[in-house]
Design goal:
By secondary structure, the chain is α/β, with parallel strands linked by helices. The protein folds into two domains: 154 residues, Orthogonal Bundle (DNAb Helicase, Chain A); 260 residues, 3-Layer(aba) Sandwich (Rossmann fold). Helices cover 51% and strands 12% of the residues. It contains 18 helices and nine strands. Strands 3-2-4-5-1-6-7-8-9 form a nine-stranded mixed sheet, sandwiched between helices. Strand 7 and strand 8 form a beta hairpin. Helix 11 packs across helix 12. The longest helix is centred in the N-terminal third of the chain and has 28 residues. The protein is elongated, with a radius of gyration of 30 Å. It starts with a helix and ends in a 10-residue tail after the last strand.
């Protein structure tokens, strides 16, 4: 009981003396105003009188008028706020309490720190209050709580002007590094030479859709890309697998890495040399920074929360992947499946921008591919259940295997194409690959060699 009453009597974080010092400095020197504005706004002040004084000083400053006790008194008088702040006598006291404006930045940062503490208390109070309301979805509340706390830290990341010179220096250094590396890949590399040439890799903040009809190799292509990113590039990857278990995915990755027949692996009837290949593959993949979440039917809210947590726990994450987006749950208030998929697509794009990493999302194509007839080449209108996917995506990749639609020649059975149907900042076109079905593996044509058996 006493602890509750003690808590109720506690004052929120504040630094009234520092607030007064900042205001006094702003009245002494114009330069102090610009310094304070870089750090504070009127909401940072605890005392209402100080908020009013700060706002009036900024109004004078914006109008290029002198800021001293006389002009400030007149401004507050016009606003009918002079008595509320303590009159002209209080304003004089602000200037007399500060001998120099040199410490305005230090005092402003103290005020800012206390303000952040109050805002954190306010957010926590809101979360506690909403948690007591049983009608609200817990997952949505957790997501909102993370977002509100995250927004507090983001406010500190505000930047003002930056001189062009250091920007040019950094840019030139980046160009030099790219030149020394002799590569045109500026994003996350896929490992497929022609695809990387056309896209320059998957770029930060981009939503990349890999779409195909069932059994075309969406998961295989995704895992091949993940393997290259994690093993060859050393970049961390987070994979949300809504369809397959983590053990199934690991088996597929081992099969592809070791070039072992997937059917023989499932039955356990492996030839002798396969075991040594598997051992080597395990060694190559064991240290790969790949993190798998196999929770089925994740909602957008849950995925966003888990992605944020993964990024906070592992600073090497450079790619997120979702297999596949039609298995996600959208918002509960969606009226139909099309609205649900639209919301999922929109939120995945927003998450890519928020976390500043590319997100690769696998997507099913509609049956229109078969109904349309012809050679079965997919197009943007085939994206299933929502045109919003096309709109939200920065890059849309279609997997096309001619042998699935027509009896091809023997040498064409492994032929595969990655069709770049959309690229917001680059060309569209076709990338030729080879698909080795029994290894669940896509390969560059110039590196492909047929294995016996």
């Amino acid at each position: 009981m006493n602890s509750q009453s003690d808590g109720a009597e506690r004052l929120p974080p504040q630094a009234v003396e520092a607030e007064a010092a900042v205001l006094g400095a702003m009245l002494l020197e114009q330069d102090a105003i610009s310094i304070a504005l870089e750090i504070l706004d009127d909401t940072a002040f605890y005392r209402d009188a100080h908020r009013k004084i700060f706002s009036a000083i900024i109004a004078l400053y914006d109008r290029n008028e002198p800021t001293d006790v006389i002009t400030l008194s007149e401004e507050l008088e016009k606003r009918h706020e002079l008595p509320a702040v303590g009159g002209s006598f209080y304003l004089v006291g602000l200037t007399e309490g500060v001998s120099t404006a040199a410490n305005v930045e230090y005092h402003a940062r103290i005020v800012h720190e206390k303000s952040q503490g109050r805002k954190l208390i306010n957010v926590a109070t809101q979360i506690v209050s909403r948690a007591y309301e049983s009608s609200e979805d817990t997952a949505e509340l957790l997501d909102d709580a993370e977002r509100m706390v995250f927004s507090l830290s983001q406010r500190d990341a505000r930047r003002g002007f930056t001189q062009l010179n250091p920007i040019l220096h950094d840019t030139f250094e980046n160009i030099e590094k790219l030149h020394e590396q002799d590569t045109t890949v500026t994003g996350v590399p896929t490992g497929f030479t022609r695809l990387d040439e056309m896209t320059a890799g998957f770029q930060r903040g981009d939503l990349v859709i890999i779409a195909a009809r069932p059994a075309m190799g969406k998961t295989a292509l995704c895992l091949n890309i993940i393997r290259h990113v994690a093993v060859e590039a050393g970049v961390g990857v987070g994979l949300f697998s809504l369809e397959m278990t983590s053990h199934q995915l690991a088996q597929r990755m081992l099969c592809s890495e070791a070039r072992v027949d997937s059917h023989l692996m499932r039955t356990g009837r492996l030839p002798g040399d396969a075991w040594s290949n598997l051992s080597i593959a395990v060694g190559a993949l064991a240290t790969a920074p790949v993190y798998i979440d196999e929770t089925p039917a994740l909602s957008v809210t849950e995925m966003r929360s888990r992605a944020r947590r993964l990024m906070s726990e592992h600073d090497d994450i450079g790619l997120l992947a979702v297999d596949y987006m039609q298995l996600m749950r959208g918002p509960s208030d969606a009226e139909n499946r099309q609205q649900e998929i639209s919301a999922i697509s929109r939120n995945l794009k927003a998450l890519a921008k928020e976390l500043d990493v590319p997100i690769v999302a696998l997507s099913q194509l509609s049956r229109a591919v078969e109904i349309r007839g012809g050679d079965g080449r997919p197009q943007l209108s085939d994206l299933r259940e929502s045109g919003a996917i096309e709109q939200d995506a920065d890059v849309v990749l279609f997997i096309y295997r001619p042998a699935r639609y027509a009896e091809g020649e023997e040498q064409e059975q492994n032929q595969a194409e990655i069709i770049i149907g959309k690229q917001r900042n680059g060309p569209v076109g076709t990338v030729d690959l080879v698909f080795v079905d029994r290894f669940a593996r896509f390969e560059n044509p110039d590196l492909y060699h047929e294995d016996p058996g």
